[in-house]
Structure formats: C-alpha cells, structure tokens
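assembly run, all chains below
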Amino acid sequence: MRIGQGYDAHRLVPGRPLVLGGVTVPSEKGLLGHSDADVLTHAVIDALLGAACLGDLGALFPDHDPRFGNISSLTLLREAVQLVKDNGFTVINIDATVVAQRPALAPYREEMQRNLAACLGAGAVSVKFTTEEGMGFSGSGEGMAATAVCLIGSL
Ligand code: MG
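ok done. output:
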C-alpha cells in the first residue's frame, strides 16, 4: 500500500462559477484558474499522483495547454485514476478537507463525495470542510485551499 498527500489553493474572483468536487455551488465569487479551478479535485489528483509517484497535476495537465482550458477537473481526475491503474494500483480511500470561510459547503458534501467516488472507482471518499476563523487568505475570502490524502494498493 502507498499513501499520498495533495494541497492546492486558488484565488476567489467575481464572475466565475464556484466548482468544488464537480458541484457548482451558488456563490457571488468563484475560483480563478485555467481549468474550472476545482481546488478540491486538484488536491485529490495530487494525492493520487503522489501515492503512485507519478509527478503532479501541473506536470500532467499544464496550465498553458489549451486542451485543458475551462475543462472539468473531474475529467482530469478520471485520467489521473486511469494512469494510477495503468501503473498497477487501485484506489482504496480518499480523505479531503476544503478550507473556506464562505459559503456554507456542508449541504453539498454528499454530491461532492458521489462525484469523486464515481471517478475514483472507490466507495470510501470523505470530504470535510473547515474555516480558518477569519484568518489568512481563506478567512478574508481572497481564496480557498484544499488538502487530501489517499491510500492506494497494488492490484
Ligand atoms: Mg489547482
């Protein structure tokens, strides 16, 4: 078995949809990025790639590549999962945390978990939410961050 961890952060700006775990959450601001900037899914992808020693999201899906412009990060996750499988591993579980001051995200937890689990082919997917009590870039609403750990096992 192998473990991996991932971290990502994106800036919040007006005029962008807020996409987390493939769910578009109603919000006056959204995350800025080349893809849909789904910070949760990006952290999950980096955790997977880390566990399998396959580099990172930026190396696999460069943000200067027009193929990935505004792409759904769930599509990138499916590709990363396939790569992990091609290297002889299966995903056992994922545990992720989104760090965001607002909006309230708990009502969307189950849908995010379902979306991620469908891509991962793993039932044990946990998504958690926390704030940083008004401190730092997440507290001020300048951005959001996410962390994830995953366990993979040899097929
Ligand atoms: Mg990212």
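The pocket of magnesium ion is lined by residues 8, 10, 33, 39, 42 (CB under 6 Å).

The chain is about 30% helix and 35% strand.

not gonna interpret more than that til we talk
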